[in-house]
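Ticket #4471: structure output looks truncated?

Reporter: J.K.
Steps to reproduce: submitted the chain below (186 residues) through the standard prediction queue, then opened the result file.
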Amino acid sequence: MKKIWAVLRPALWCFMIMTLLLGVIYPTVITGIAQIAFPKQANGSIITVSSHDGTEKEIGSAFIAQEFTSSRYLIGRPFGTANLSPVNDEQNKAVQQRIKWWYDFDAENSAVIPLDLVTTSGTAADPNISPEAADYQVTRIARARNMTENEVKQIISRYTSRRLLGFWGEPAVNVLKVNLALDGLI
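Returned output as attached by the reporter:
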């Protein structure tokens, strides 16, 4: 029994110390730093708008996609949870259905549909689309809202992120922010 306890005691102490250190202290410190340094991001980058009575209303997160299907709005990537191979028959059928949907939805637009409008993202909740995908939709949105194409493009440009340091990543348009701006809410 003494031999077992001699082996178990250091293991239990190590377990308790590591649990306290990595399960309590470290997360508390990191959360505290995040709340001080980046409070908006640490709390989900929630977008709020002022209502008519002066109260703030939470609309959504800038980091999680929301589905828009009206011709008045910028439409993001399709939602989907299955990450299928590009050569998978199900993936090909889904892409063909989405292409048909786009041509039926905006019959006046005969341009090539950007890939990110017919394929899901790896996260299935990507809030952004490419500038090309946004540009593809400008004429429809302008027509549906009785705006000029230039007005719509200016709003899209305002919510387009650029490459980090000029070379890292790809430019992206935040769909929710553009749609809120189109409605005059932000």
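Triage note (M.O.): checked the attachment and the full token line is present. Residues 48 and 58 are 4 Å apart (CA to CA).
Status: closed, working as intended.
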